[in-house]
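Q: I have 139 residues here and want to know how they pack in 3D. Can you give me a structure?
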Amino acid sequence: MRRALLLSALLLGACASNPKTSSPELIKPGVIESVTPIELDDSSSGGGTAGSVAGQVGGIYSGSVLGVILGSVVGGTVGSQASIATKPGVELWVKLDEDGSSVYVMQALGKDSFKVGDPVRLHIKNGERKVEMLSEAQK
């Protein structure tokens, strides 16, 4: 009986799994309407995780369940605050050539230096947007 249940669960799990498919990339030409330098969040969860684990270990050695809980919360909070970091980015408004609508994009600062009026391409794939300058040959 256990074997039949296990086999059924495995078969149902295999049927239910949905392989992640990527959507096709859309490329839309446009023109830069606005450029604003910003700071993007570049933090990781590593500090929070390390702080949480340290708090749990401290609570375990003190022999208190409340110590484990409080240590996890306080350690995770302090660790998260310690790991906050930023990286330079840019906030762009792009006016699309095809319909004149404007699209908002935030992205990390890369090799491109955007100016108002620059012709660009907007890449959209899996819900993510990225703007890139057109090369001289593409203009």
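Q: Anything worth noting?
A: The CA atoms of residues 39 and 121 lie 23 Å apart. DSSP finds three helices and five strands in the chain.
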